Amino acid sequence: MAFTVIDSKGESHSYGAFPVSEKVSTTLQLLNMGDGNIGLSYDSSFSGVKSGQVHGGPIVITGNEEKVVNQSPRVVVSISEFNKSDSKASVHVRIIVDVPVLGSQTIYNQTLKGDYGTSTGWDVAMENLESIKNS
Fold first, then answer.
1. Strand 20-34 relative to strand 4-17: parallel, antiparallel, unpaired?
2. pLDDT band for position 16 (50/70/90)?
3. DSSP string covering 81-104, please?
4. Can you tell me whether residue 8 is helix, strand or coil?
5. How many helical (H) and strand (E) elements, i.e. helices and strands, does the chain have?
6. Do residues 40 and 93 make contact, with C-beta atoms less than 8 angstroms apart?
7. Half-sphere exposure of 3 (CA within 13 A, CB side)
8. CA 111 to CA 49: how far, in whole Å?
9. Which of 25, 103, 109, 135 is the most buried (most CB within 10 A)?
10. What is the pLDDT of residues 64-112, one digit of tens each?
11. pLDDT of residue 4
12. Cα–Cα distances in Å, from 81 out to 28, 65, 111, 113?
């Protein structure tokens, strides 16, 4: 299912120094999932001591919370300043990762916000196609 992107922001960091260094790039998208639901999708790539990429979502956001989303390495996602009205949504996201050898590091710390309609992008596209068909 396709969702409408309300906002998208990326953040990149480098930690440590050779031979113990890590580069992390993370992008989050705030999504209108339809039916009044707001969610987050994520994409993060890392290289250095360990290399790889993780992506996923959407994860439905219903309010402020702090959650351990991975045990090893430990990843804590903190959702704060959640605010949603009929046409606007905002959320502050902070992600802390226990980077091997380097300890706990904040890899993402931003507010995502924006206007959204009550329909997802696919809903609007289908309504447009229906109106063309009926004209």
1. antiparallel
2. confident
3. EEEE-SSEEEEEEEEEEEETTTEE
4. strand
5. 1, 8
6. yes
7. 21
8. 29
9. 25
10. 999 888 888 888 999 999 999 888 999 999 999 988 778 899 999 999 9
11. 87
12. 16, 10, 9, 11
Beta strand extents in 49-129 (DSSP E only): 52-61, 65-71, 74-84, 88-99, 103-115
More confident residue, 73 or 125: 73
Contact 67, 77 (CB under 8 A): yes
Q: Taking the complete model, does pTM exceed 0.90, yes or no?
A: no
Q: For the sheet containing 74-84, what is the strand order?
A: 65-71, 74-84, 88-99, 103-115
Average pLDDT, the chain: 87
CA distance 14 to 24: 6
End-to-end CA separation in angstroms for the chain? 28
Structure tokens belonging to residue 81: 């300043």
